[in-house]
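so my prof wants the structure for this chain in the tokens format not the other one, which i didnt know existed until like an hour ago. anyway here's the sequence
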Amino acid sequence: MKTITKHLLIILLALGSFSLYGQDMHYTQFADMPVYLNPAFTGHIDGTYRARIIYRSQWSSIVPNAFATPGLTLDANSGVGKGGSSFGIGLLALNDQTGDGIFNTLHGALSLAYHLALDKDQHHFLSIGAQGGLINKRVNTADITYGSQFDGFQINPSVVSNENFENTSVLNPDLGVGLTWSSYFSNKFNLKLGGAYLHLLEAKNAFLGDGTNLIPPRIALHLESTIGVGSKMSVQPKAHYNLQAGASELNAGLILGYELQPSLMLNLGGGMRLGDAVFVILGGEYKGVKLGLSYDANNSELKSAGGTGAIELLLGYTGSVFKKADPILPAIRFF
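here's what i got, hopefully its the right format
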């Protein structure tokens, strides 16, 4: 009976994500997925190019691979032009699998951004970006069971459910825009803030033939800063707020960075997703290579279902085309 209950929970969660309104996938290490966070961050790099690979697994104790969300972003900068301004271009690919493969969302997009230097010393930037692509949502109806198939003892897949799907796969165009302000006041203090308006097209998002069921727009606001403390430490507060389909989400955390040796930084911190989870983050950076590991401990009502939270793994690299190229952005690092 416990196994049946767990599978029913997963099915309800998966169905809920497309029967009314779907909410976007999220990451605990949101600040390390800048192209997904805000298209205006595309190409805003301490270098020439940047790659990020992330994998999130959630509630695997309920059903194996119940919620799996891998992601990949690639972006590059055109190089500093006249007055210190530059262009950015990037690619985004995300895949969100729920319900042990019952429901799948695939999102691919191209991002473009322009970074306007507001002063001759290139310490302040106003960036505007746009992101366009496709979103594919698929449902595997063969693996779904319903309450109507309960035969008095158990869920019996051989019992006709009388559920009819008009579509099992929906492909829609998608468009989003973003704006950011970045200030590098000194080599020990920078501040970035911005916002994005995503899913401008509000495309059809229905499997049951309901043309009024649309992908709801999402408003994203974010703030992050790096504050140098002494010669080896930094404090990095970060916050991210989402509003979509009447539901809101607030992520806030603090990362402490420590320089173990030249070019080697250790990061340790944590935070919370209000009303949902608390999390810890451990990571490091070495000569452009970035590693991150986070764990979410669920504290929402779903905790009673036995879920163990979420684990995220992140791998990234930031590099330059030329061996001694000047960084696109000034005064980011503390060593």
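also thought this was worth mentioning. Confidence is low (pLDDT under 50) at residues 1-21, 330-335.
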